[in-house]
Amino acid sequence: MVAALTAAVPALALAEAWLAQYHGPTQQATAKQWLQGHGSQQQIQAALSGVLTQIWRAGFQAGLQAVAKLGVAAVGLLVADLLKQLAAEWLDEITDTRLDRLAAVLANGGTAAELEAAINAVLADQHSAQMIAQTELNRADNAARMAAFRADRVYRVRWVTTSANPCPECVMNRDAGPWPLGHPFPSGVIMPPDHPHCQCHLEPA
């Protein structure tokens, strides 16, 4: 993900283009609007799309394998359809989050060299990349589980925590017991992940 983003967004060229129009600190909303007009949003989204598609595909396979071991038949499910669904729901949001971070960098101002370094720091943020990868892998895993449950007419599920120290919201969802498939759990989501780095999953109740 880091390699894809740094290759897609030329940091120095972006910094110089920004400084050609703006000098000194400015509003983050102005910087974000400028990035969108400059084509940075499309560059980031294209880079993320390729990486996320690979992550989601791996997550789908893991989820389908997991439910098969539980005796759930995932007949007729098309991974391509699941990919389209996740991309439609989450690609824009993930792209927008990264764009907001770049906008904050530009809005703070600085020299071309300072902005280049700050832009590269955002694009090469390993912690953020790992968080996105883990969260989206689990999202795809659970999306595959839900699709398989629907196909096999599993109507009730339970929220399973796997972390040694689950968060309060995930504990609340787990303790809710058997739950109607597709209905929001007490925390408001219909499936894991409930938060970044969430490791929970659904199983038939």
From TrEMBL:
Superkingdom to which the source organism belongs: Bacteria
Pfam families linked to this entry: Phage_Mu_F
Ranges where the Phage head morphogenesis domain occurs: 100-202
Identification of the protein by name: Phage head morphogenesis domain-containing protein
Annotated organism of origin: Trebonia kvetii
